[in-house]
Amino acid sequence: MLENLQDTRIKVGLTIQVRLVADLKASLAYYRDILGCTVDDWGHAQRDDMIFILQQAKSRDDVRPNAASQKRQDYPTEWHGPDHGWDTFVHMEWEDLEPFVEEIREKGAIISVEPFTAIHGKWEFKNVYVDDPDGYTIVFGAMREI
């Protein structure tokens, strides 16, 4: 029954993150020059499948990166949740993560948490936390089965 339901569902499209930023020009420059995105005058910043729409906030008070989430005891593995707020999670291939980190580090990326690995159940994860000028945290992460 569920298989038939899946076949008839309307497909939704790519999800694009929208962010209010304190200084649109500075943010576009960071996403372009540091993270390697293509940017335009509309506020789009894109690198491969990572896409943002950056919009000028009316007030600095309107810029609100996520706080750390509540820890949970009911995840499917021993992990209880992140220690820092996440605004975006970007999946990468395992072998691409370290070279990417070095690429953006050399350009002046704001790396708030250095690359680290962890094991959750049958998966090994490797993540790095990168902040933008407004304090939004982008987690670049890879995983592989153990």
From TrEMBL:
Highest taxon of source: Bacteria
Entry keyword set: Dioxygenase, Oxidoreductase
Gene3D superfamilies the UniProt entry points to: 2,3-Dihydroxybiphenyl 1,2-Dioxygenase, domain 1
InterPro entries: Glyas_Bleomycin-R_OHBP_Dase, Glyas_Fos-R_dOase_dom, VOC_core
GO MF annotation terms: dioxygenase activity
Residue ranges constituting the VOC domain according to the UniProt record: 13-143
Pfam family membership, one: Glyoxalase
SUPFAM superfamilies linked: Glyoxalase/Bleomycin resistance protein/Dihydroxybiphenyl dioxygenase
Cited PROSITE patterns: VOC
Protein name, as recorded: Catechol 2,3-dioxygenase
